Amino acid sequence: MNAFAVLADETRRDIVRLVAKNGELTSSEISQNFQISPPAVSQHLKLLKDAKILHVKKEAQKRIYSLNQQGMKEMEDWILEVKNLWTKRLDKLDRYVIKLKMERANDKK
Fold first, then answer.
1. Which of 27-41, 42-56, 92-106 shows the lowest per-residue confidence on average (mean pLDDT)?
2. Which residue range or ranges hold the HTH arsR-type domain (predicted)?
3. In angstroms, what is the C-alpha Rg of the chain?
4. Multiple choice CATH, 3-67, 1.10.1040.10, 1.10.10.10, 3.30.70.100, 1.10.1670.10
5. What number is the average pLDDT over the span 33-56?
6. What is the DSSP letter of 67?
């Protein structure tokens, strides 16, 4: 599943915000912030890890989650690419509107 599909779920977006705010959290610390069962949180964490949004490191029995900078960068790059495409289209539209206004102003003279 791709990162955007994974982030379509509000709980997973909330988990990402929580981890981003705190830097690193164990799965238990994450679970304490939700009204769902720890196994359900674990399923969300697995999807976030598989989508490369979160990174997990193991310390003894603990799983410690942090943001996966590479996965976040890939999403950011895609968003910026789309934004730049729209900016170019809007700039083109702006130039066209200015051209039309100038033509109308010249026609009135």
1. 92-106
2. 1-87
3. 22
4. 1.10.10.10
5. 95
6. E
